Amino acid sequence: MPELPEVETTRRGIAPHVTERTVRSVVVREPRLRWRVPHDFAQSLTGQRVAAVRRRAKYLLLDTATGTVIVHLGMSGSLRVLPAAHPTVDHDHLDIVFDNGTCLRFNDPRRFGCVLWTKEDPLTHRLLKSLAPEPLEKNFDTEYLVRHGRGRKVAVKQFLMNSRVVVGVGNIYASEALFRAGVRPTRHAGKVSRNEWQKIARAIKTVLRASIRSGGTTLRDYVNPEGNPGYFKQRLFVYERAGEPCRRCGTKIKHLVQGQRSSYYCPGCQK
Ligand SMILES: [Zn+2]
Q1: What is the pLDDT of residues 145-166, one digit of tens each?
Q2: Ligand 1 centre from 265 Cα, in Å?
Q3: Which end of the chain is less packed: N or C, by CB atoms within 10 Å?
């Protein structure tokens, strides 16, 4: 599933190729995505110039003078910049065709993604308006976590994966950040110390930035028909390493299920 680093890498991959480009046409082959592509989507977007490509949480926003395209990649979506005449493959549901003969092509086998249009400020859109802070922004810090974690009995890992607390910290990143911070995923959020919250905030930023950096090497694949705009792996300490020795202390990594999601931790390194 595309996580926040993959979405940010997608943004960086497509932005230079679509910014300042004018939309010549729109081809919708399959409107039945998670939410239906609006019936007037092509009409609204055609003739508009893309002013910027932004990201909020896992939503990509293509700004134009009259409105904004909101894209979510869902479970299996991807975006590529290709020659508009490039043959389509299965699940190529939508093309935004530009004045230079390229297109932005949306592919999504499972169709949990979406392509929407809003004339309002997209940050006030119903899907975006209640989103918590971005983990890489300054307002996501020790004080923020101390304030929101106070008195909470929920496990710290589930707390971090709650998009009302912070957006885009998926299972891999929560597991890896808690390892780096030395905190067990099962600890009650209310029992995490200020010092530990500081380590957790730093670790989340570190693992997300490392993942975005490793994605930087795949940027050319966003414009390469043969490439794979892939989802990249950084060197993981605990995630999906149950039974294997900890890379720091050699203790066997443990697995447990929290809120129907797998958690992994090192009993030696995490208290
Ligand atoms: Zn260890």
Answers
A1: 999 999 999 999 999 999 899 9
A2: 8
A3: C
